[in-house]
Design brief:
Layout: H1 2-6, E1 15-22, H2 25-34, E2 41-48, E3 66-73, H3 84-98, E4 107-110, E5 114-117, E6 120-131, E7 137-145, H4 170-188, H5 194-203, E8 211-215, E9 220-228, E10 234-238, E11 243-246, E12 250-253
Parallel strand pairs: 1-2
Antiparallel strand pairs: 2-3, 3-7, 4-5, 5-6, 6-7, 8-9, 8-12, 9-10, 10-11
């Protein structure tokens, strides 16, 4: 019973270390985990010299944006970790939405966890995990949000909060993210709260019912985005009428 109680999160459970510059906040968190850090640690940096996105893509990290990583140790049994990206997405969605003017374009989540404003990408999220020598499991949630600077992205249209009418600073945005993430992780509750998480995710989802292309490592698949199942898998209705679950891929709206 005690371990169940300990899995609930509140603001007081988290620590924060603000750096001026680092190669990557994700790498910094993993190094600290290897050195014995107990987790629930946020590391932010004003600038990253070696930021990275999904599939090893570089993430341009100039000053003016928010670069933050959260280190969690043994956040859930391995078979429940698959729903964590959805909880992270609802936290970032909440933080971004809370700093935009009411007249801003819609803030939506593109599966699994990109945050779009008016269908333009404004955030990248990268989760990385590592088994530690002492038997613990380190999981790092890396979040980069375009506040004042928009790196070119040939794959997607991009935007930043400044362009959307928000004058928030990276530090102010982080305060919103810090609170929203604590609440989302509390709801997620080490994977036990997946139903509430998927319900919230669906409310903010982008493009349900639309035609999409999903790029997998070895092929592209066309179909209709039906939604997500209760485990967070993308449900794609293919052109031959089958519904196909997809665990990972790059989604493009047509």
């Amino acid at each position: 019973m005690a371990s169940d109680m300990n899995s609930r999160k509140s603001l007081a459970d988290f620590r924060h270390d603000a750096l001026s510059e680092t190669s990557s906040t994700n790498s910094e968190c993993l190094e600290r985990a290897r050195a014995g850090d107990r987790g629930n640690l946020w590391v932010t940096a004003e600038r990253q010299t070696g930021g990275r996105g999904r599939r090893g893509r570089p993430w341009v990290s100039e000053r003016g944006n928010l670069y933050a990583s959260l280190l969690l140790i043994d956040p859930a049994p391995m078979d429940r970790l698959g729903s964590l990206p959805l909880a992270v997405a609802i936290a970032v969605h909440q933080a971004v939405r809370s700093v935009l003017p009411l007249a801003a374009e819609p803030v939506e989540i593109k599966w699994p966890n990109d945050i779009l404003i008016g269908r333009k990408k404004t955030c990248g999220i990268l989760l990385e995990g590592e088994a530690l020598p002492d038997g613990r499991y380190a999981l790092v949630i890396g979040i980069g949000i375009n506040v004042a600077v928009m790196p070119d992205n040939p794959m997607y249209p991009v935007t930043c909060l400044r362009q959307q009418g928000s004058m928030v600073s990276p530090d102010e945005l982080f305060a919103h993210l810090y609170a929203a993430m604590a609440e989302a992780l509390d709801v997620w509750n080490s994977g036990k709260g997946i139903r509430e998480v998927t319900a919230r995710w669906r409310e903010a989802a982008c493009g349900v019912g639309e035609k999409i292309t999903v790029n997998l490592p070895d092929k592209s698949i066309l179909g209709h985005f039906v939604g997500i199942d209760d485990n967070g898998l993308l449900m794609l209705e293919t052109e031959d009428g089958r519904t196909m679950p997809i665990a990972a891929g790059d989604v493009f709206f047509r």
